[in-house]
Amino acid sequence: MFAVMVGTMNGAMKRATASPRFILTLFIALCAFSRVAPVRAANITASSCSSTAVQSAINSAASGDTVSIPAGTCAWTSAVSINKTLNLQGATTCSGWPLTCTDRTIINTAVQAIKVSSSASAFVTLGGLTLNVNGGDPNNGAVTLDGTEFTVSFRFHHSHLIITGSATMVGAIANWGTYGVIDHVVVDNSASNNHTMSIQGDWQYAGFRAWQKPLSFGTNNAMYVEDSVFNLANQLDGLIDGFTGGRLVFRDNIVTFTGSSNGADSLGFHGTDSGSYRSFFSAEIYNNTFTNNASGPLTALRLRGGTAVMYGNTFNGTKGWNGANLQNYRADGGGNTSQWGNCNGTNWKLMSVDPTTSAGRTNSTSGTVFWCAINRDTPATSDTTCNALTPGDTATAYFDGNPNGSGAAGAACRDNPGRTHNQALAPVYVWMNNPNVGVSSSDAPAYIVANRDFYANTTTFTGATGVGSGPLASRPSTCTAGVGYWATDRSVLYQCSASNAWIAYYTPFTYPHPLTGGASTPPPPASPANLRIIK
Questions:
Q1: I want to staple 136 with a disulfide (CB 3.0 to 4.6 A). Which of 144, 167, 433, 523 is the partner?
Q2: How does pLDDT run across 313-325, given as a tens digit for each residue?
């Protein structure tokens, strides 16, 4: 016979003989409790660092598990794939600042090595890896961060990437539209003709869906790169490239150019001139240190579409910096027009509403597809589509022709620098860099206009032009629409939204990124109190 010890109100225990019925009821209850209590995540160690062993461990892991890759050096000739919530952890460690790594799990590869397919329900974490990349997939790099677009679903951290191969597009990391954070990564790239990283918005839909989402400055809806070190030798085409509506936050990093990196862009983003895709969407670039010890001057930022804020960066080194250069190749007469034609006042229309097809990325004066007049990033063949989004909206807008624009034909170009969702003005703001790099438009000056499409740092700020900075109390009471003021005591960029009317326009997202703290498994519920079974 069993007895149950039951706690009284004063904490004393009393002994009571339990009936068989009570024991059966208690047994069923305890079994039910054991079924609902969460199971702690397992740690599965791969039998070796080979891709076969790692993929086998990934396949055997349950959602939420950690797969550990032991120390060693292995050659991978095919990629491992991850499509569930998983922490893939190697033995490489990276610490200190400037960050340095001790390479212990070393993967030698000339192909795509890791393919991540993440989502809101499949969060993927990668860390502790050394990837020695001699070649690489030109489209996907050594690491591909893919999955459900516009979801915060990955972290890649505390790893070392060594790129020595000659992949012509992407050497290290390709991001195809998912959001997340890359942090505490060291990249040593000595190859001459690749981008270290490529950032996209929605490649499959050519950026059309990404541009249909509002501006998300200061939120976690972006690809974050922070607290990382980039050593770039012989770079001819820049550190990061991107288009199709990509969103990037690049902050608190150290970037050093050496060797023959003459004329490269530190950060450069495409416009609508490339393959009939939509341009890059937005970039936030701040608190970085850029050093140019290469053979010639470099360009701090080249932006061919979308918007950006760039502030608080240090630009130094033995060679100079050209500052921020805003361009629109479709308007410069140089012929880089893709299938969308010159931006010169021609009333272009798309041939199809489906951007996944060639016709959906081809303009013609005889096209059949307009754009909504209000929701200007929505292609439509009739007013019905536009009216469903905003009553009264009509399918009457052409490919170019933003009413906020001016220029030779009285119209701005689609996705012009300084434009955002629905082609509204969202100027590029550049301020408080050290030294204060300039902002210029090297072509199409009629379409990319100072103090409309971009605002540069102004030392003596009156509220009339440019961007000022200082305590909030020193902000001028009068202002011209569009100018900016960075309140140094608030870390907020205020914009003059209308004559003499200031609004809070931009506040940087939490630093460090919340994902860098790691996510722990919730503890199981506490055991029932004052209840035990004894003989």
A1: 167
A2: 999 999 989 889 9
